[in-house]
Amino acid sequence: MASLQVTSRRVYRRTDNHTPGAPKVELFTEALPPIAPDAVVIKVYAVSLNYRDANIANGGNPWPVTSHGIPCSDAAGEVVAVGKMVKGLVLGDRVAPILDTKNITGRESTRSWLAADEDGVLADYLVFEEEKVCKLPVNLSWAGASIIPCAGVTAWMALKGVGIGKTVLIQGTGGVSMIALKLARAAGLRVILSSSSDKKLEKISASFSTPPLSMVNYAKNPAWEEDVLRLTTGMGVDLVIENGGTESLVKSMKCTRRGGIISQVGYLGRQDPQELAEFLPLLIDRRVTLRGINVGSKHDMEDLCAALSATQLDFSDIIDSVYSFDKAEEAIEYIWQGKQVGKIVIRL
């Protein structure tokens, strides 16, 4: 083992107390996990939060999670130790673990998610097998690089198949949406952005003024799909990055052009199956391709990192705020309340 020898780490674990107002995480010092010959030790410099992290901490995840597991799935750090069988990584490499540690090529039939059915990354040192780690672009800050594994890869996969000059409706102003906005602009797509907050829309519009964004406030107009159709001269958008679920899916279909694509990346709205009464007729009539996006494979993450390196894209303008490691509880609560525009990062 070539390395800085580390034997213990500081790590947060969920309390699994879902009572409103009760602490959701607790800090521990514990032994570093065993280091296999094909594994590396990563010194973590930044961890980014997703709504998923706060949802799990508050008991809202629809899939089983390990008891008192380590939260968060997105980290960026430096390799500080390598096992004797490691071939593709060296000391000093900037890396991040992939979120679905069984999804290497995209053809695997099983899955395993960080911070759900295995421990996450909210710790100062991590141990991962080499095949579950991806190199990061060198041009990004630690904070910017930390948003890649979940939100970044999700946005990347959601935008696939739509070429330059097409129109995309991006719902919301959270992490996936803001990364999708950055990637869409870099790819030459026209963006329509929706939110329930004029204040958020105005803030984002000021940051992305050239070319100007088209905006839709779905809280002011419950029939917001009509606004989208007006903005596309009745044709509809080529792609929707859908965040709401049953509450918004049918409306998204109504404002997608015939033969267009809907990438379902989340279910943040009120879920009511009765909202889907028109689903099948619309699906057939509009010939919509509806695809579920569940992050992506290691190969997909490598493709995104290559694109970010080639374009030198920077994410500093979509980081809402940065918290210190000892403020992890506050960061989780902030994202749970939906106050952010863009990404929340914890710096170690």
From TrEMBL:
Q: Where is this region: Disordered?
A: 1-20
What Pfam families does its record include?
ADH_N, ADH_zinc_N
Q: Which InterPro entries match?
A: ADH-like_C, ADH-like_N, ER, GroES-like_sf, NAD(P)-bd_dom_sf, Zinc_ADH-like
- Which residues does the UniProt record annotate as the domain Enoyl reductase (ER)? 21-346
GO MF annotations for this entry?
oxidoreductase activity
Q: What is this protein called?
A: NAD(P)-binding protein
Q: Record the organism.
A: Melanomma pulvis-pyrius CBS 109.77
